[in-house]
Amino acid sequence: MSKTNSQSVQRYSSTTRVLHWVSAVLILSTIPIGAIMLREGLARPTQDLLFILHKNGGVIIFALVVARLIWRAISPPPPLPASVSGWQQKAAKFGHWGLYGMLLVMSVSGYVRVRAGGFPVEMLDAIGAPTFVPRSDALADFAQTVHHYGRVFLVALIIAHVAAALWHMIRRDGVMRRIWPPVGS
Ligand code: HEM
Ligand code: HEM
């Protein structure tokens, strides 16, 4: 945690900030890729490429979420400025845990859908990682349903999160500077 020069706003560590923005870029690409790759009429090679990008991007997101949670336990978030009211602090906490939770639900359900369906996850196969779920059409269908509906909750949380960030940017209350820029002091 460090302090900015202009105002005494406590900031996230640079490791947290880099992890946040790398994850954000990856998540904001993986979601539209997931939606586009299921469209009818796509050329087969295009669809295959999008599936590969989506599945492997999802695995990287999972690894980043786990890394973020471990790092968060080592380097806890700095306290929010006093200008952020009690209910807003509670809403932020709920939203952040909701985002972590839904990212785990989405990456695990995606993985189970693919593995239980008997399909490859190229990156994991390349390093010889074992498959952690049995081949089962019923399990694959269940995971597909979770993945399909889970996206609605994840997207709703992201919209609320970005709206709250924009609100703080307009107010210029220092909350945005806790997480931005991704690198530097
Ligand atoms: C946080 C990570 C992830 C997000 C945000 C995400 C998001 C999405 C979205 C929005 C869709 C379109 C769903 C629909 O319209 O029904 C989708 C589909 C899909 N995703 Fe993911 N995904 C993630 C991780 C993964 C992973 C790790 C895998 C596999 C290793 C995966 C495999 C799939 C597959 C196979 C589909 C097509 C499902 C079907 O057959 O209908 N996803 N994903
Ligand atoms: C998919 C996209 C995103 C996800 C999943 C995400 C997730 C998160 C999470 C989980 C935290 C809490 C960090 C912690 O305490 O452990 C956080 C903090 C933050 N994020 Fe994002 N974020 C995303 C995109 C964005 C964008 C686009 C903005 C700005 C326009 C933004 C602005 C912020 C700010 C200002 C904070 C600090 C909040 C505070 O000080 O309590 N995020 N984000």
Please count the beta strands (DSSP E, at least 2 residues each): 0
C-alpha end-to-end distance: 10 Å
| Rg computed from alpha carbons, rounded to a whole number of angstroms | 19 Å
Oligomer: single chain
CATH superfamily: Transmembrane di-heme cytochromes, Chain C
Strand content: under 5%
Low-confidence stretches: 1-6
Any idea what the CATH architecture is? Up-down Bundle
Hetero compounds? protoporphyrin IX containing FE
Give helix and strand order, one letter per element, not per position.
HHHHH
- Main beta-sheet annotation: none
Mean pLDDT: 95
The CATH topology name reads: Fumarate Reductase Cytochrome B subunit
**Which secondary-structure class do the elements indicate?**
mainly alpha
Question: Which descriptors would you attach to this protein?
Answer:
single chain, 185 residues, mainly alpha, Fumarate Reductase Cytochrome B subunit, 0% strand, binds protoporphyrin IX containing FE
